[in-house]
């Protein structure tokens, strides 16, 4: 095992811990219809709900319009300064905000 793998593994564990801490904050902000980055939701659950909605709409002869967007890479381009400001506005302060700022400033995509 090389050093990079060990560090990378530890970073992933720490990222997971930070995500667990931040999750309750964004759960109250993001609409329930959002499926990405939510526990128990995925593209599969989204498609199943959409299929059910579509069948119901067609049965009652209603029009269905849909636009699906893939934002998976958009977070690689987020302005870190704006993100840190938003986190501060959400109540993230002190050591955690300092760590997140440091982490983001040293992360390359």
UniProtKB/TrEMBL annotation:
Pfam families reported for this sequence: RVT_1 (PF00078)
SUPFAM superfamilies: DNA/RNA polymerases
Keywords: Nucleotidyltransferase, RNA-directed DNA polymerase, Transferase
GO molecular function: RNA-directed DNA polymerase activity
Domain Reverse transcriptase: from-to ranges: 5-104
Protein name listed in UniProt: Reverse transcriptase
